[in-house]
Amino acid sequence: MKGLNLYVSFRWPEFIKGKTLKAVSCGPWVDFETKAHMGTKVEVVIAEDDTIYPTKEGKVISNLYERMQIKVPKDITVPVGGIVEPVGVVATVYADYRNKLSVKADDVRLVTPTNGGK
Question: Which of 69, 97, 104, 108 has the fewest CB atoms below 10 angstroms from its CB?
Fold first, then answer.
């Protein structure tokens, strides 16, 4: 069957709950094929992951310290080490093993830490 991935959705609000994202780099987002400037690519690391994942055969699952890129269709600057929150996210799971995440957002907001800079 073809086109099945059109009917699979990724629930970003549920995924991001309990996570803190920290920026590790920020640079231009350039289309691979056309080389056209598309906006900004913000690479983040999951600095905290308090999500409760279902366990399988006693294995503990966590996305702590996993990296991902957030593509934003405008030019922005995000400081390295800044805690960020993507706004207006559309996320898609892809790859043969469904273990990759493509994230596009309308914007990335810098969050001011309220717990002593953690």
Answer: 97
